[in-house]
Design brief:
α5 runs antiparallel to α6. Strands 1-2 form a two-stranded antiparallel sheet. By secondary structure, it is mainly alpha-helical. The protein contains 7 helices and 2 strands.
């Protein structure tokens, strides 16, 4: 198929699709990196608490018979968050993902927002000094959790800002096919394979993907004194995943509507009678209304 209309379709739809898909892929990658970072924080916190309990217990047992020596515990909880961020964009992720993020101005954190102790000590001696050291170790562990989660929280907020100032990289805006001048349909069956087979399948895949994104959660529920609060950085994470869901939902609409619009054009090109011309005009008007004024989805509001 060739001519002015298909050139318009290619320019407004196919020409923009790769950019938008790459943008959504980058956002999805960042979502995965964020989940990995929070998981690393919780994993590191559990390990540190377990080591603290074990070494404190050993010190208590030793103090029964003699003066216990001090025990050191290395704290790398917050730095593990940085490792989690890189899992999807460096050695553990697909080739080129890191570059895709960089091209869009998205970043994964490489430095912590706040400094915190990287080592804590459980003092030796008797019960009181060991207990005091145990309690201080828990405070130091919590400071590490806070530093890590503040970094996750800020990284999400920063990237949300970047996404919202670069809407064209994530949002497909399609102009309806309006012109039927100088049109030549070479093989109608191949053109309709696009509108009746491929585009409906892309639409179904996008709807399914949107459902998966909608089901993403950051399962953090705990005492409010831990880390940055009872739910950690859940609020920012939910804002990020909901935006991705809205973008995917918006793209699924554009694909569905674009396919219907192109099919109406094909029908008119093949049978250029007044009845089909009226159908095309109505489809164009409907599409224009959806795309310009009555679009059911707006990811940016």
């Amino acid at each position: 198929m060739s001519g002015a209309a298909i050139a318009q379709f290619k320019a407004s739809f196919l020409g923009k699709m790769a950019t938008v898909v790459s943008g959504m892929h980058a956002v999805a990658t960042f979502v995965g990196s964020t989940l990995a970072a929070e998981q690393k924080i919780l994993q590191g916190a559990r390990d540190a608490v377990l080591e603290t309990v074990q070494k404190s217990t050993e010190s208590f047992e030793t103090s029964v018979h003699s003066k216990a020596g001090e025990a050191k515990i290395i704290l790398n909880i917050a730095s593990w968050a940085l490792q989690g961020f890189t899992l999807f964009v460096e050695g553990g992720g697909p080739v080129g993902v890191g570059l895709a993020l960089a091209d869009l101005g998205l970043t994964v954190a490489t430095d912590l927002v706040d400094a915190s102790k990287e080592e804590t000590t459980i003092a030796g001696g008797g019960y009181d000094s060991i207990m005091s050291g145990f309690e201080q170790a828990l405070v130091d562990i919590n400071d590490q959790i806070k530093a890590g989660e503040k970094t996750v929280e800020k990284n999400i907020s920063d990237n949300l800002g970047r996404i919202r100032t670069d809407t064209s990289s994530y949002d497909l805006t399609v102009d309806p096919v309006e012109s039927n001048e100088q049109v030549v349909i070479i093989q109608k069956d191949l053109a309709e394979e696009v509108t009746k087979v491929y585009m409906p399948q892309v639409y179904k895949d996008l709807v399914a993907t949107g459902s998966l994104v909608q089901g993403l959660v950051m399962p953090v529920r705990r005492n409010k004194a831990i880390g940055i609060g009872a739910n950690g950085p859940i609020s920012e994470f939910c804002e990020l995943t909901f935006l991705l869901y809205e973008l995917i939902k918006d793209l699924s609409f554009e694909v569905d509507n674009g396919g219907a619009n192109l099919q109406a054009a094909i029908n008119d090109f093949a049978q250029a009678d007044e009845e089909n011309k009226a159908e095309l005009d109505k489809a164009v008007d409907d599409s224009a209304g959806k795309l310009e004024g009555n679009h059911p989805y707006d990811p940016w509001n």
